[in-house]
Design goal:
The complex is a heterodimer of chains A (484) and B (352). Chain A has 484 residues and is an alpha+beta fold. Helices cover 35% and strands 19% of the residues of chain A. Chain B is 28% helix and 25% strand. Chain B is built from 11 helices and 17 strands. The longest helix of chain B has 14 residues. The chains are: A alpha+beta (484), B alpha+beta (352).
Chain lengths: 484, 352
C-alpha cells in the first residue's frame, strides 16, 4: 500500500468495520492463519485481511471498496478445494462466505432449492429427503464442501455420467460483480435469452464474480439402487467390461475403477471385502425403478463374467451397498495410511486410453521412484492418480509435482484434459499452456477482462496471464502436444 | 465432407479488413429466428462431415455444417441418439446452427439441452483465430466454459467449426400416456408426476390433453403404465416429432408466436390463448399481438423470460431484454471475441 491514496491495513479494517461486525473483520496473524491455504496445503499464503460478511449488502460493499482501491479479493467457501484456488493473496482480502449457510427454500412442487453459497453439499440432500428428493452432484468432500464452491469449481462426483456436473444441476445464480453490482444469471425457467453467462460462471474459480445465492434442481430419490462389485486380472479387461456395459445401452448411476494399490489400501482401511489379489476392481451402481434395477443387475453380472471377471458380488441390502462404497469413498485416506503424504491428480482421458495411460504411468513411477495408486471414475474418464511421497525427504515434493505435471501432459496427449473436476487454481496453471495455445489463453484473458478489467478477483489463478504464459512456454514449448 | 475452415478464416479476415459485417449461414433452416440484419452471407454449409464417433466413449465430433440427419443416421446404426432431441425446421438443419440457437426438443427437462451435451467446440473468432475449447471427454474444467457459452449466442462470438457432443443409448422402450385435462390441472399434474422416481422423459399439454412420455427399461415403463392408469397413445411418436419440429397446428399461423421459458409450476391465468405447454410446464407457447414489454413483465412474474419467436417486428429486439449491468457484460464479452463486430452482429440483440 505504498500509494498515498491507498488505505493501509488498519485503515482498510476500519473501513470494513463500519458495516461488518468488528469480530468478523480479521487482521491478526493468529486468527488469519487457518485461511492461509485450502485443501491443497502445499500452497500457502497469509492474507492481508479476512472478512466474514453476513448480508449480501455487506458483500457488495466489500467489493466496492476493494474495487475502488484495486485490492485483490479471494472468495472462499469451505476451503476443501484441491487446486489452491482459494489460496489468499498477500496484499488482498479473503471474502469468506461461511456465514451464508442458510437453505432459503425447498420447493417440492418445482423440485428446486434456493440456497446461500455456504450451504454444505450434503445438507441439501438431507433437507430435501423429506420430500423424496435429493441434489445430484456428490463430490467426495460433500460432507464439508459448500454449494458456492461447487459452482465455482463445477464439481462432479461419482454419479456424473448419469446425473451430470454442477453446471447441469443449477437453474440460476445471484452474483455480485467486481464493481459491487448484483446480477441474476439464469432464471426459474430452463433456458434463458442471450449469452449463457451462468455456464461461464460455473467453474470460473472465483475469477469473474462472487456468488451470493444459487437455485439448484432436485431429483426424485430412486426407488432402488444396487451395486455390483467385480474383480479382474487386468486393467484392460476391466476397461473393456466398462465399454461392454455402455455398448449394451446401460448408463450406470456410478461406475468406479480402482487399481491394485488402491484396492489393497482401501481394503486394509475399510474391510469392505475387496479381493486383494485383483489387478482391477469395478464398482457399478444401478438405480431406478425396482423393476429396471433388477433387469439391469442381471445383465451387468452376466457382462462382467463375459469380460473375464474373477469374482462378482452384488449388494443385497442397503448396508452392504454402503459397505462396498465405503472402500472406494475412503480410498484417499486409506492411501494416506500407507504413505506419509500423497498428492492427488485429476486428469480426464478417453476411456479407451486407460490401459495405455496406466502403463505409461507405471514407467514414470519407476523413473521417479515414487509409488502411484489409481482411482478412476470409469464412467466419465476422470482419473485420480495418487502419488505417494514423503514431504520430509528434501526434494521429494518437487519430484512429485514434476511427476504429476507429466501425468497431466500425458492426459492431454491422449486426447484428454488436465483437470476433470478439481480445477486449475494455482496448482495446474503451469499445465494450462499444454492444453491451450497462446491465442486460446488470450481469449480466456479477454473474457476475464470483460468481467474484471482490473484483474482483482482471485488474481494469479485459473488462467495464466500473457506474461506468465509466455514465460512457461519458453520453458516448455509444447506445440506438438497441443490439441493432442 | 470437407474442411473449409481456412477459407472461412480468410473470409473473416477479408471482412475485417473491409469493415464488412457477415451473416453466418449453413443449412439456412432458421432464418426466421432472432433479429433481421443486413450483412454479407458467410456460407459454411460445405464445412461438413463427421470427424470421429466412438460409440463406447459416447462421444461424437462433427464439423458444424453437418446436417442433423447425417449425424442421427450414423447414431442409429449403433442404437444411440442425440438425447436433447434437436428440432429440425428442414432437412438441412445442421449441428452448428442447433448449437448457436440452443435448440432442444420435448425431452429437455429430463435429458438436458444441447448446451448440456456439449463437450467441446472449435470456432473462429472475429480476429480470424481458429480456437479450440473443451474437448472430447465428459469432464473438463480447465479454463472458462467457452463451449457452452456458444449455446444461444447465435453466432455472435465466432463461427463454429467443430462440435463435440455427448451421445446416449436409445431407451429400450418408449410409451406415452394421456389424460384429458384443463391447462391448470395439467400443470399441477406434470409437476407432481415429475417428482416421482419414474422414467418420465417428456410432458406436454396440447389442446386440452396432457401427454406424459415414459422411456427406459421395458420393465420400468410397463410398471409405470400400470400404476398411473392413463390411456396409452397409439400414435405418440408422431405427436412428439410434430411438437419437436413445431409442426403442430397451433404453430401454423402468421400471428406473432411467443415462447415463454418460465417456472414449471407458474400460473397461466393472464394468457387465455395459451396453445401449448411443453417441458413439464417450463416452456409455453402463446400466439397473439401483445406488447413485448408487457409480455416481459408477465414472464418475469412467472420467474422467467419471453422471446418473440416468430412473426412481429423483427427489426426491433425480439429476445428478453437483460438489465443494464448484464447488457454491459454481454457487450464486453462480444467485444472480447469479435472486437470489430463482424460476426452476426445485431442478430441476438440490437445493441451487440
Amino acid at each position: 500500500m505504498s500509494n498515498h491514496n491507498q488505505p493501509d491495513k488498519a485503515e482498510l479494517c476500519s473501513l470494513f468495520r463500519r458495516f461488518i461486525a468488528p469480530e468478523f473483520v480479521i487482521s491478526d496473524a493468529e486468527t488469519l492463519k487457518p485461511y492461509e491455504c485450502d485443501g491443497l496445503s502445499m500452497y500457502c499464503e497469509m492474507p492481508l485481511i479476512v472478512v466474514l460478511p453476513e448480508t449480501v449488502d455487506q458483500v457488495q460493499e466489500v467489493l466496492r471498496i476493494c474495487h475502488r482501491y484495486q485490492i485483490p479479493v479471494v472468495a472462499r467457501g469451505a476451503g476443501t478445494g484441491l487446486c489452491a484456488g482459494a489460496m489468499p493473496n498477500a496484499t488482498g482480502v479473503v471474502l469468506s462466505l461461511a456465514k451464508f449457510n442458510h437453505i432459503l427454500e425447498i420447493n417440492s412442487q418445482t423440485r428446486t432449492a434456493r440456497l446461500q453459497p455456504g450451504v454444505r453439499n450434503l445438507a441439501i440432500s438431507e433437507a430435501a429427503a423429506e420430500y423424496g428428493l435429493y441434489y445430484g452432484p456428490d463430490p467426495s468432500s460433500q460432507i464439508a464442501c459448500t454449494i458456492g464452491g461447487n459452482v465455482a469449481e463445477n464439481s462432479g462426483g461419482v454419479h456424473c455420467l448419469k446425473y451430470g456436473l454442477t453446471v447441469h444441476n443449477i437453474l440460476s445464480v445471484e452474483m455480485i460483480t467486481v464493481e459491487g453490482d448484483k446480477i441474476l444469471l439464469g432464471s426459474d425457467g430452463l433456458d434463458s435469452c442471450g449469452l449463457d453467462l451462468m455456464a461461464l460462471i460455473t467453474g470460473s474459480e472465483g475469477l469473474l464474480g462472487v456468488i451470493t445465492e444459487i437455485q439448484v434442481k432436485l431429483l426424485p430419490i430412486p426407488e432402488k439402487a444396487q451395486v455390483v462389485m467385480a474383480a479382474f486380472d487386468t486393467v484392460q479387461q476391466a476397461g473393456d467390461a466398462v465399454g461392454g456395459i455402455i455398448s449394451n445401452g446401460i448408463i450406470p448411476a456410478g461406475l468406479e475403477m480402482m487399481d491394485t494399490h488402491a484396492i489393497q489400501a482401501a481394503e486394509d482401511f475399510a474391510r469392505a471385502g475387496y479381493p486383494k489379489g485383483a489387478q482391477a476392481l469395478l464398482l457399478c451402481e444401478l438405480d431406478g425403478t425396482t423393476e429396471e434395477v433388477q433387469e439391469y443387475i442381471e445383465q451387468v453380472e452376466k457382462l462382467f463374467l463375459t469380460y473375464g471377471a474373477t469374482s462378482i458380488r452384488t449388494s443385497q441390502t442397503e448396508a452392504e451397498r454402503a459397505l462396498l462404497w465405503k472402500g472406494r469413498k475412503s480410498a484417499f485416506p486409506a492411501v494416506g495410511r500407507i504413505s506419509p503424504d500423497y498428492y492427488c491428480m485429476d486428469g480426464t482421458i478417453p476411456r479407451s486410453q486407460l490401459a495405455h495411460v496406466l502403463t505409461e504411468m507405471q514407467t514414470m513411477s519407476e523413473h521417479y521412484q515414487l509409488r502411484v495408486a489409481n482411482v478412476f471414475h470409469a464412467g466419465d474418464g476422470n482419473l485420480h492418480p495418487l502419488i505417494l511421497f514423503d514431504a520430509n525427504v528434501p526434494g521429494e515434493f518437487e519430484k512429485t509435482e514434476e511427476f504429476g505435471g507429466k501425468i497431466l501432459e500425458l492426459c492431454v496427449a491422449v486426447g484428454g484434459c488436465i483437470t476433470g473436476e478439481h480445477g486449475v487454481g494455482i496448482e495446474k496453471i503451469r499445465q494450462m499452456p499444454v492444453q491451450f495455445n497462446q491465442q486460446e489463453l488470450q481469449q480466456f484473458n479477454a473474457i476475464k477482462e470483460a468481467f474484471d478489467p482490473k484483474g482483482t478477483l482471485n488474481p494469479g489463478k485459473g488462467i495464466p496471464t500473457l506474461r506468465r504464459c509466455q514465460e512457461y512456454r519458453s520453458i516448455e514449448p509444447s506445440e506438438e502436444v497441443n490439441h493432442g | 465432407m470437407a474442411d473449409i475452415s481456412p477459407q472461412i478464416q480468410q473470409q473473416i479476415l477479408d471482412a475485417r479488413r473491409d469493415k464488412r459485417q457477415l451473416n453466418i449461414v449453413a443449412g439456412n433452416s432458421k432464418p426466421f429466428m432472432g433479429r433481421q440484419t443486413h450483412a454479407d452471407t458467410l456460407n459454411v454449409s460445405q464445412h461438413r462431415g463427421i470427424i470421429s464417433y466412438q460409440p463406447v466413449e459416447l462421444v461424437l465430433t462433427a464439423r458444424s455444417g453437418t446436417p442433423l440427419t447425417e449425424i442421427e443416421a450414423l447414431l442409429d446404426e449403433h442404437n444411440q441418439m442425440l438425447a436433447f432431441e434437436p428440432p429440425r425446421f428442414s432437412a438441412h438443419s445442421t449441428i452448428g446452427g442447433t448449437l448457436a440457437c440452443n435448440l432442444s426438443g420435448p425431452g429437455r427437462p429430463w435429458s438436458g439441452s444441447i448446451r448440456d451435451h456439449i463437450l467441446g467446440v472449435r470456432l473462429i473468432n472475429g480476429l480470424g483465430e481458429h480456437l479450440k475449447f473443451g474437448g472430447q471427454v465428459m469432464k473438463n474444467v480447465a479454463g472458462y466454459d467457452v463451449s457452452r457459452l456458444q449455446a444461444g449466442a447465435m453466432g455472435t462470438l465466432g463461427v463454429l467449426t467443430e462440435v463435440s457432443l455427448k451421445v446416449l443409448p436409445k431407451p429400450a422402450a418408449v410409451s406415452t400416456l394421456s389424460w384429458e385435462l384443463e391447462a391448470k390441472q395439467a400443470i399441477r399434474m406434470m409437476n407432481e408426476l415429475a417428482g416421482k422416481p419414474k422414467p418420465i422423459s417428456a410432458a406436454c399439454w396440447i389442446e386440452g390433453r396432457l401427454y406424459i412420455r415414459l422411456s427406459g427399461a421395458q420393465s420400468a415403463v410397463d410398471a409405470t403404465i400400470k400404476e398411473w392408469h392413463g390411456s396409452e397413445e397409439p400414435d405418440a411418436d408422431n405427436l412428439w416429432l410434430a411438437l419437436r419440429d413445431q409442426q403442430l397446428s397451433a404453430f401454423q399461423s402468421t400471428d406473432p408466436l411467443w415462447r415463454l421459458s418460465i417456472n414449471a409450476a407458474a400460473d397461466v391465468a393472464p394468457l387465455d390463448h395459451l396453445s401449448i405447454i411443453d417441458w413439464g410446464g417450463a416452456q409455453r407457447w402463446y400466439r397473439g399481438h401483445q406488447d413485448k414489454y408487457e409480455m416481459e413483465t408477465l414472464a418475469e412474474r412467472a420467474g422467467g423470460q419471453v422471446s418473440l419467436y416468430t412473426g412481429g417486428d423483427r427489426t426491433a429486439d425480439v429476445f428478453h431484454q437483460p438489465v443494464p449491468a448484464l447488457q454491459e457484460i454481454q457487450k464486453r464479452i462480444k467485444a472480447s471475441f469479435d472486437p470489430d463486430g463482424i460476426l452476426n452482429s445485431g442478430r441476438l440483440y440490437s445493441w451487440m
